[in-house]
Every structure is written in C-alpha cells, then in structure tokens.
Design goal:
Blueprint lengths: L5 H22 L12 H29 L1 H29 L5 H6 L6 H10 L1 H25 L6 H21 L3 H7 L2 H13 L5 H15 L20 H10 L8 E6 L14 H4 L1 H10 E8 L5 H10 L9 H4 L8 H7 L3 E6 L9 H7 L2 E4 L6 H13 L6 E6 L19 H24 L2 H4 L2 E6 L6 H4 L2 H4 L4 H4 E7 L7 E2 L4 E2 L3 H9 L23 E5 L2 E6 L2 E6 L2 E9 L18 E3 L3 H22 L12
Length: 637
C-alpha cells in the first residue's frame, strides 16, 4: 500500500475503534436497564460488515483524491475518519437513549448543549457508557493524527483503491444477508448510510393525488366523526363552527368565578401499565393522583400517545395533531397554519403560562412557546419536580383578573431517572422508574393540596396526561423486533378532574392525547373551530369510538379497539398485529407484569387493512406538507 503506509495505519485504527464500539454498544446496558438487542451476537456480524464497508468507502475516496494531491488525500482520510468516529458514536448513543438512529431531523430539532441537567446526568449517571464512548472517539482520533504526522502523505496505488472498492461493496451488500430480519438490518446500518437512506426515503413518501384522496377517506373513517364534521375538502381535518365568535363572546362575558382555571400536567414518560388504576398496588404507588381521581376525577387508563419522544407528545397534546410520518411534527410544521389549545384559550380571555425544567432552546421550541403561552416560567436552577411544584403553586396562588391556563411539564421520570436524596438505592431498572414516579406523584400532591385550600382552586380543571411512555427492559431489548411506534413507547395515561364529573370513574375505552384539547373545550362549553383529531370525552351522547394513529420516522402504529396494527412505510415486509392491552398471566415484577400483549396472526383482511392504514398515513403527511390543516385567516375561517 505504498512505502509510507499511512492509509493502512489509519484505516486499521478506524476499524479497531469501530469494532470495539460495536461490541460495547451491544453488550453494555442502555438507560432502560436492558441491552439494545435481544440477541446481540446475531446483529454484530451485520453491523461490523456495514462498518467495514463504510470505512472502505472512505478509503476509496481518499485514495482517489491522493492521485491529485497526496496531502489532500491524507487530510481527507484523517479528518474524514475522525468525523466518522464522532458521527458513528453519536448514532449509537442515540440508539441507546431513544431506540432510533441518527437522522437529519435530530440536527435541526435539538440543541443538546442547552439541556444542562440531561448532559450532567448523562455524564455522572451513565458514567461507564459515557467514558467508553468518549475513549472510543478520542483515543483513535489521537492515533489517527499521530499516524498521519509520522508517516506523512502518500499516493495510493490503483490496485489498493480497487481492493477497497470491492471491500466496500462486499461489506455494505452483505448486511442484508447477515441481518436476521429487515428491522435488524435497519438497526445494523452505519450512521452515514442511515442518514442518506432516511433522506431518500423521505423524498419518496409523496403519494399521488388519487392516493391522497383515498387516504383521506380512510382517515375520516378512522376518526369516525359525525357526517359533515369535516366539511371543507381543501382542509380535510378542519372543523369550522360558524357561530364561534358568539361562543367566545359568551365565555368572555362570564364573571371570573364562572371561568375556571385550568392546570394541564404533562407527565413525563408515564407508562400506562404502571399508572393503571385497575391494577393492584397503583393506589399505594400514586396516592396523590389516586386521591384526586376519587375526589373529582375520571381516569382513562388506556390512553395512547401519538408520538415519541417528548417533542412529539407536546404536538399531540397542545395541537391535537398526529405526528409527521417521516419527520418530527413540531420541526416539520414550523411554518404550518395550526391552532393550539393555548391560542384558543387566549382568544377566550385566559392568561397562559408554562412551568418547565427544560430550556425551550433544547427542542428549539421558542417560536412554538411564543404562540402557545404568554409567559414561560423556566429557570435553570429549577431542576427537580419539587422546584417545579413550588413554582406552580406560586403561579396558581398569584392574584389575577383573568382565568389561568397553566401547563406543567414534569421531569423526574425522564431518563436518566431522578432519585431523591433520601431514597434507597434501586435494585432493578423498574425500581428506579417507580422511585422517580412516586417522587413526581408526591410533588403533584403538594400542588393538589394547594388547590384544595381555596374555592377557586377546588374549581380548577386538572388534566394529567403522559407525553409518551418509555420501554421497560423486556420491550427495550426487543425493539428491533417490536418496531416503532409500539405500546412500550406510546401507552400512557390520562386523568381528568373537574367539578361535576362522576368521581372515581374508570373508563377503559381507547383514548389518546388528541382527546385532551377537545375535552377541555367541552368542559368550558366553548364551541369553536379547530383541527383537533381527538374528541370530547364527556359529550352526550357518549363519544363515538375512534382509532389512534401514531407515527415515527416511517413507522406506523394504529390502535383500533383492542388491536394494534404495525407497519413501516419504507418496508412492505414489516406487518404486525397485536392484542396489545393484555397483561402477563405469570407475574413479571421486573417489567410491571406487562410485555407487549399477545401477537396475533395476520389474515388477508388484516393485510388489506394495514395497506389502507399506510395510505392514510401518507395522505396525512401530504396534508402537513401542503399546509392544509386549517385555512388562512379570512372569510373562509
């Protein structure tokens, strides 16, 4: 390979570093307490083949450049190698934390440096994994620069360029043969291959006008609204109310005592199976929520989050919209005409405030929060749910002339999980989760006690909804097989407490985050135009049953009654059906007695149904991409 051998030394260092990183990734535990795959040694060969192929591609490019300039070829190999180390390790860390590979949306939707608590807890709460990741980037990078400096530039012989080209083709093409399934192949893809393929797949998702019409017909059947609910074909989810101005005016004219405050608690990573009041032990686990439910609440234990992670859940709750089929809703929809529940309540005369422990800059939410809230109560020193509870109580007790819509984002159950100083060391991942869950419940209890202390507080409408769930160890280790979205990511909880509701009522029908905003409008007796895909859960007669659609990076999950249908828009072979809401018959304390329900065999009718759901998801993506959620301001509205 030439007299100096710089190419062989650098490529060898890269190969050793990437191989070590792959083995560490598959064998170390993720923040969920499980490994990233159920059978790691079945994925490692395909993953290593992809890494070899990617490194060989880099070698080919650098070798070709070396024919023009030996120095430029060496610079490309060295700098490109360091870049590859960084991006590849970042990709694996994202898989550990979120179950998803790096894609272009992560670069634009997040500002990791603004989330100091998360960075601190990654550093000190997951020290071993962080140290390994850091070493696998820093040490090889130093070695690469040392080799380049010592051996200097060289012009790579054409035979070796051809050899590297053959190796790259063999490595990348053999992945499909080595990976046990198509989903496993997706998990084994190198970072740069994934970035390119995800971007290409996004461009290929555009359906034809005919397919859009068919998909929207399917969407309307799926949502199961009364005839004429969606009357404008140009804006297929817009529900126009011609008399809305009168409804707003009537509400604004009410005296303040007849305009209740609203407290919306967005419960971070609330697992539906751990907060299900139908199950034994939940009352002792969540006494504050249980008491509120018994006093004046209705619990909906079968509530589905329409997105994952938190940025998607917020779109579902506050905008009442399903996610984007190939991206992140609140990133893709920055220029979208939408109407949040906060904007509706502002028009009704509410003051709108947010209390949160995460900087708006972390998920680049500044523009959205400016639309949704009048004031964002974020202080970097507020790092725990105890801090947030104090600030929430201050805002609820403040004197004001307008009703208050206060939103609280809890934080303790976000990985890495918070452990109070006086709590014993958890022995299992589930104990860690339940410790954080119980801590959040105690802090919410302080808020509920403050509400009970005043007449206005006792009239406050309280809605507690999870932004999403988080997989337990059984689910986390099987994500390559379960796919995404899945019940472990999306089964969360909903509790609504308000004067006049039947206290202590359990309603086990299928609900979702999308129901929060229309239910609140119903409780306030506001009949106004909106694009909420959910429905008022307390309407009379009883609300019509509807399905719930969850989307995530080309993955589809459609919950219909007791069944969950799963598919991928970029993989026609991935089709699954589950009776998802079934607890394990044999006790499994490590996973809360819940895995993922019972997998069902697919009939021809099921396969046809899933194809219809995929058309629906693509049509919904076209509605978002074409800015057809709601009409522009004017007479049409």
């Amino acid at each position: 390979m030439g007299r100096r051998g710089a190419f062989s030394g650098i490529l060898g260092a890269l190969l050793v570093a990437r191989a070590a990183s792959v083995f560490a990734h598959h064998l170390l535990l993720s923040p969920s307490g499980a490994r990233v795959s159920e059978h790691p040694f079945s994925l490692i060969p395909a993953t290593l083949a992809g890494e070899v192929g990617t490194l060989a591609v880099l070698g080919v490019l650098a070798g070709l450049v070396s024919w023009i300039s030996a120095r430029a070829g060496l610079a490309l190999l060295a700098l490109g190698g360091v870049f590859l180390l960084f991006v590849s390790q970042l990709d694996l860390e994202l898989v550990r934390w979120t179950g998803e590979h790096l894609n272009s949306h992560w670069f634009f939707a997040y500002n990791l440096l603004s989330h100091r608590r998360l960075l601190r807890e990654v550093l000190f709460g997951d020290t071993l994994a962080f140290a390994v990741a850091l070493l696998l980037v820093v040490v090889p990078s130093l070695a690469i620069f040392a080799i380049a400096r010592r051996r200097g530039p060289e012009r790579l012989d054409g035979r070796y360029v051809a050899l590297l080209a053959a190796l790259s083709l063999a490595g990348l093409s053999s992945q499909s043969l080595l990976a046990p399934t198509a989903l496993a192949l997706r998990r084994a893809r190198p970072a740069l291959v994934g970035l390119v393929s995800e971007s290409v797949a996004s461009f290929g998702d555009r359906p034809s006008p005919r397919d859009v019409r068919a998909g929207l017909e399917e969407l309307h059947r799926f949502l199961n609204r009364p005839p004429g609910w969606f009357a404008d074909a140009g804006y297929p989810v817009w529900h126009a109310v011609s008399s809305e101005e009168a409804s707003y005016a009537r509400f604004r004219a009410r005296p303040l005592p007849e305009k209740p405050d609203v407290l919306l608690v967005v419960f971070e990573s609330a697992r539906g199976w751990e907060t299900d009041f139908r199950r034994p032990g939940v009352e002792a686990r969540l006494p504050s929520l249980h008491r509120l439910w018994k006093e004046r609440g209705v619990s909906f234990p079968v509530c589905i989050a329409t997105g994952y992670p938190s940025i998607e859940g917020r779109g579902g709750i506050l905008l009442g919209l399903a996610g984007h089929p190939s991206g992140i809703l609140l990133y893709n929809a920055r220029q979208l005409r939408v109407l949040s529940i906060g904007e509706i309540l502002a028009r009704a005369g509410y003051e709108r405030e947010l209390v949160a422990a995460t900087s708006p800059a972390f998920e680049k939410m500044e523009d959205w929060y400016a639309r949704w809230f009048d004031d964002v109560r974020y202080d970097p020193s507020d790092t725990t749910d105890e801090d947030l509870a104090k600030r929430t109580i201050q805002r609820l007790e403040a004197t004001r002339e307008k009703p208050l819509f206060l939103t609280l984002f809890t934080i303790a159950t976000h990985p890495p999980l918070y452990r109070p100083p006086d709590a014993p060391e958890p022995k299992t991942p589930r104990e860690s989760y339940l410790t954080a869950l119980g801590y959040t419940d105690r802090q919410l209890g302080r808020i509920f006690e403050a509400l009970r202390a005043t007449p206005r507080g006792r009239d406050t409408i309280v809605l507690v909804v999870g932004d999403h769930a988080t997989p337990n160890p059984w689910q986390a280790i099987r994500l390559p097989r379960l796919g995404t979205p899945n019940a472990g990511e999306n089964w969360t909880t909903l509790l609504v407490a308000a004067r006049g509701l039947p206290p202590g009522t359990l309603r086990p029908e299928l609900t979702s985050q999308l129901d929060v905003s229309p239910t609140l409008l119903g409780l306030l007796d506001l009949d106004v135009s909106n694009h909420f895909l959910g429905r008022d859960l307390f309407t009379a007669p009883a609300p019509r049953p509807q399905g719930v659609l969850a989307l995530r990076f080309h993955g589809l999950a459609a919950f219909e009654g007791p069944f969950l249908y799963q598919a991928r828009l970029d993989d026609p072979a991935f089709l699954q059906k589950w009776r998802w809401e079934v607890y394990e018959e044999e006790a499994d304390a490590a996973n809360g007695d819940y895995h993922h329900g019972v997998r069902e065999s697919l009939s021809a009718v099921d396969r046809e149904r899933i194809e219809g759901l995929k058309r629906m998801a693509r049509a919904w993506g076209a509605v978002l991409d074409d800015n057809r959620v709601m009409p522009p301001p004017g007479p049409a509205r």
